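Budget justification aside, the reviewers requested a transparent look at the raw inputs and outputs of the sequence design task funded under Objective 1. We therefore reproduce one unedited record. The lines immediately below are the structure tokens for a 70-residue chain.
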């Protein structure tokens, strides 16, 4: 997940170490609607071909998730 916008440089959240005050700041920004979350498209595993086409089309933005149901 990436945090981006005027409050954060474009940074991969996996590489950050956050303390309690920073986490609170993120929560406050989220509550105020100041953080953007990339568009997420979900596909069932059976729709893997459609998911791959969505990625390859170049028209979509955001992330694609394959859902595995047991």
């Amino acid at each position: 997940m990436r945090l981006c916008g005027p409050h954060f440089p474009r940074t991969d959240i996996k590489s950050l170490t956050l303390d309690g005050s920073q986490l609170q700041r993120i929560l406050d920004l989220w509550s105020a609607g100041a953080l953007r979350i990339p568009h997420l498209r979900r596909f069932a595993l059976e729709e893997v071909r459609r998911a791959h086409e969505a990625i390859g089309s170049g028209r979509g933005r955001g992330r694609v998730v394959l859902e595995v149901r047991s």
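The chain has two helices and four strands. Strands lie at 2-5, 8-12, 40-44, 63-67. Computational costs for records of this kind are itemized in the attached budget.
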